[in-house]
Specification:
By secondary structure, the chain is an alpha/beta fold. 38% of the residues lie in helices and 16% in strands.
Length: 288
């Protein structure tokens, strides 16, 4: 399984790692817990604001300090990381949820520079949704430009295959391997051998790549159909669409007197379920 993942990462993301660096677990939530034990409960963790709220809940339930770092159009703000004395920042640079923004190369190098200033600093690169970029090649991972072993890459097959497939993995920097295997190897793998052998065969025989290509085309068509409906509807003059090419969701800015929460409630009454950007902030700004 780990050999198959390593080959997939090399072919699809140009990430060159050994199978020994890959840790497999039943879902990213389980892997976050392992990382906390590996990196230390005394460290200060941080997540993006806005961001996926479950991540901060997991950190807090493990009784570690977890803060929220504001974002601008390029990603998390480096000065805030410094001011809040963060040790470990959890980010999704290739396709941020929920804004859809992609961290530019300049900010990535800034972030790596921040991490290089202390042995205790690390970046958890959550490569959420990277397989479903609808236009152009996948955005290169931060792990590719990390020469100081500061990036811990994490991804899942749950999004690409099915929500019931609880198989995720992380790639540890080489210098953390000895610590992991000496301190945490007593844990049994939470993914059954049967599932691992099946998925490994699925990847090795080329079916996973074909599946991704087929699903990308499917979602591309679905996205285009939805955007075309909006463009040709009475709603068109009041709508601005953003980040429609970066993955499986996009932002829709509406010119309306309704609050975003009231609009979502009104839409749900019509059978349309959407989410407000403000609901992903710790303290929503008025412009959200």
């Amino acid at each position: 399984m780990r050999k198959a993942i390593a080959k997939h990462l090399k072919d699809f993301r140009n990430i060159d790692v050994t199978p020994e660096q890959i840790i497999v677990g039943a879902g990213t939530e389980y892997l976050y817990g392992l990382l906390i034990q590996l990196l230390g409960f005394e460290k200060k963790y941080a997540v993006e604001n806005p961001g996926y709220s479950k991540i901060s809940l997991i950190y807090k339930k493990h009784n570690v300090s977890c803060d929220f770092i504001s974002m601008d159009k390029s990603g998390v703000q480096i000065d805030e990381l410094e001011n809040k004395a963060v040790d470990v920042i959890h980010i999704s640079p290739s396709h941020h949820f929920p804004t859809g923004c992609i961290m530019p190369i300049s900010r990535r190098y800034e972030l790596l520079g921040w991490a290089s200033k202390s042995d205790s600093r690390y970046i958890i690169e959550d490569d959420y949704d990277s397989e479903f970029r609808l236009i152009g090649q996948p955005i290169p991972a931060m792990q590719n430009i990390d020469v100081l072993e500061k990036v811990i890459y994490i991804n899942t097959f749950t999004k690409t295959l099915a929500s019931t497939v609880r198989i995720s993995y992380m790639v540890l920097p080489k210098h953390l391997l000895h610590k992991f295997y000496s301190e945490l190897s007593f844990y049994s793998c939470t993914v059954s051998n049967f599932e691992q052998y099946t998925l490994a065969r699925f990847i090795d025989d080329g079916y996973f790549e074909k599946h991704i290509s087929r699903m990308r085309n499917y979602y591309h068509t679905k996205r285009d159909t939805l955007l075309d409906i909006i463009k040709n509807s009475p709603l068109a003059p009041y709508v601005t669409i953003r980040e429609e090419n970066s993955g499986l969701h996009f932002l829709m800015k509406l010119n309306t007197t309704l609050s975003d929460s009231d609009f979502c409630i009104a839409a749900e009454k019509k059978g349309i379920k959407i989410s407000a950007l403000s609901s992903f902030y710790v303290n929503p700004p008025e412009s959200a």
